[in-house]
Design a protein that fits this description.
seven-stranded mixed sheet; Rossmann fold; alpha/beta; 25% strand; globular; 9 helices; 350 residues
Length: 350
């Protein structure tokens, strides 16, 4: 195929294995947003094949991308490390086919929490992966959705772009909760000091009072010790807000304490639903969450949940990130600012 279709630039959207539904959704959003007055683009789904030889080496082949604008989506899907290798091979194949420009989009960047040498003789893959993408594969445009630590974008050269997922949660709260409850009957609860600092504008933007759960960590485990709840939660509809939920152990402890303090309901809202526990199967983990005192979990599909919802008994709601990523990718391709996507007060899904 020519790099032009009826005089329009071809934009191809690729995604690594396990992200087919997300790729289709983002492709559709991007196609819509690049139409109309800007009708000099044609958006297509990029196709690639993955072959694994007898020696377990991987080979990736892509369709024609010569002089195309390429968008590559990659998020954390199991097996995580295998799919990182697939991403590297996919980008290598794309580079070898001479695209005009390549954008890499991480709805959730694997290894992003492994970027600090806080113990002797440990790896820091959260730093090495950006170096590989930059120095080996010559990636220059990267987009991160709500990274666990904002500083992760600085490991890329030039600095990666970032869009928050939090406004989607705020919009959900307004639509689903504040349509049923008065703001004075609700409380935004921050699970730790980090969440309180990072999401401090949420309570005021919603007209809801905040509360805080103070914790301490005595080791490097995923289970901090709860110290005290500060704020009025008695009789309130409590909204726990954070960037991600991993094993769910912390939120279950928080919810139990909030219920003990008299909370009417407890709902957990997180941008990233990692939902993994080395000690439990997916069915056991989701069953544990579904049978807990938490009234509802809300996450985005930045990490595909797949059949986990089958075990959730309706307790997990999923928000699509495709409109946000479609808008962000459109702005990247057109060289427009992403600043508007950082505003909590804005409408992000139109």
């Amino acid at each position: 195929m020519s790099s032009k279709v009826n005089g329009r630039t071809v934009v191809k959207v690729f995604a690594t294995t396990g992200m087919e539904a997300m790729r289709n959704a983002v492709e559709s959003e991007l196609r819509t947003r690049l139409s109309g007055e800007l009708d000099h683009f044609v958006v297509e789904g990029g196709q690639h094949s993955v072959s694994t030889f007898s020696n377990q080496n991987m080979e990736v082949q892509v369709d024609n991308v010569r002089d195309h604008v390429v968008v590559v989506l990659h998020t954390q899907t199991p097996p995580v490390s295998d799919h990182i290798v697939e991403l590297l091979a996919l980008l290598d194949a794309i580079n070898n086919a001479h695209p005009r420009q390549t954008f890499v989009v991480f709805p959730y960047m694997p290894y992003s929490r492994s970027d600090r040498k806080n113990r002797p003789r440990i790896s820091v893959m959260g730093q090495r992966l950006p170096e590989i993408l930059n120095k080996v594969l010559n990636v220059r445009r990267v987009l991160l959705l709500e990274p666990h630590d904002p500083h992760i974008k600085q490991y890329f050269v030039p600095t990666a772009d970032e869009v928050p997922g939090l406004p989607m949660l705020v919009e959900y709260i307004r639509r689903e909760y504040l349509s049923q409850h008065k703001p004075e009957d609700c409380t935004v609860v921050f699970a730790d000091s980090s969440a309180a600092k990072r999401f401090e504008e949420v309570p005021s933007s919603l007209g809801i009072e905040p509360a805080y759960i103070y914790k301490s960590r005595t080791d490097h485990s995923e289970n901090p010790h709860v110290k005290v709840v500060m704020g009025n939660v008695k009789g309130k509809h409590c909204l726990l807000v954070d960037d991600e939920i991993l094993t769910g152990n912390t939120v279950l402890k928080d919810a139990a304490i909030l219920k003990q303090e008299g909370a009417a309901t407890v709902r957990m809202l997180a941008v990233h639903g990692v939902l993994l526990d080395q000690k439990l199967t997916a069915e056991q983990l989701i069953g544990k969450l579904a049978n807990s005192v938490v009234d509802e979990f809300v996450v985005t599909d930045s990490i595909p949940i797949g059949d986990k919802l089958d075990y959730a008994e309706g307790k997990i709601k999923v928000i699509s990130i495709a409109p946000l990523l479609g808008e962000a990718c459109k702005r990247l391709i057109l060289g427009e600012s992403l600043s508007a996507l950082h505003r909590i007060e804005g409408e992000l899904t139109s």
